[in-house]
Design brief:
Layout lengths: L17 E2 L9 E7 L2 E7 L5 H6 L4 E4 L2 H14 L6 E4 L5 E4 L11 H12 L2
């Protein structure tokens, strides 16, 4: 991963915050946890920020169906590839844009890839 990981040393060293922005403004949230080999995936409609939690009701739902968990996990894998354009939150709580590779060529657009996959499925 190319992002600098923010957090508390020894507690959240393995947490990376990444934002994928493209032609679709997305507000969905995906949370994936793996503990002792067991994967949990949760989805929600908005971020868990102070302004959202204090002034309105936000909900997260755990996905139970293994096919759904696998599908969403595959989406996360795409979004976390090193060659996908993204913003990352660094250790100083600043967003850093990653859109060019080491040869100054544009990184892949994850949303374009999702559209391509959808068109291949045809439904």
């Amino acid at each position: 991963m190319c992002a600098i990981k923010p957090g508390i040393p020894g507690l959240s060293d393995n947490i990376e915050v990444r934002s994928i922005l493209g032609r679709f403004l997305e507000h969905s949230r995906i949370y994936e946890f793996t503990n002792a080999g067991q994967k949990e995936v949760w989805i929600g409609s908005a971020d868990l920020m102070h302004r959202n939690l204090d002034r309105r009701v936000e909900a997260l739902v755990q996905l139970e169906d293994k096919e759904h968990v696998s599908y969403i996990s595959d989406l996360l894998d795409l979004y976390l590839l090193d060659n996908v354009a993204h913003w990352s939150l660094n250790g100083n709580s600043q967003w850093v844009r990653h859109f060019l590779d080491s040869e100054n060529k544009p990184l892949k657009d994850a949303q374009d890839e999702l559209i391509r996959r959808k068109n291949l499925r045809g439904n």
